[in-house]
Amino acid sequence: MQTYMTKGTCSRQIIFEVTEDNKLFGVKFIGGCSGNLQAIARLVDGKDIDEVISLLKGIKCRSNTSCGDQLATALEKYKFKKMNPDLDKK
Q1: I want to staple 63 with a disulfide (CB 3.0 to 4.6 A). Which of 8, 27, 86, 90 is the partner?
Q2: What are the beta bridge partners of residue 68?
């Protein structure tokens, strides 16, 4: 399970899991607009994380970001950590 603390949105945190083949599932937003965020979570369930990043990156709401944009950012950070595991040890 991955946890990401959001910045600039009504939701405070995003919890998600990624399978070995980079499929996203179990997305939960803490805080924010419950109905809309449940819809986003259902729509991205089972999708490849690169597809989700492509779909949601750059969507703006408040503070020049949105909950969807923050999910894309969380997935980008996940990918970076996965590709650079040694950086976590420093």
Answers
A1: 8
A2: none
The 3-class SS string of 24-75 reads EEEEEEEECCHHHHHHHHHHHCCCEHHHHHHHHCCCCCECCECHHHHHHHHH
Q: pLDDT tens across 61-77, in order?
A: 989 999 999 999 999 99
Q: pLDDT tens digits for 5-27?
A: 999 999 999 999 999 999 999 99
Would you tell me the crossing angle of helices 34-44 and 49-56 to the nearest 10 degrees?
140
Amino acid at position 26, single letter: G
Which residue reads 């998600």 in tokens?
16
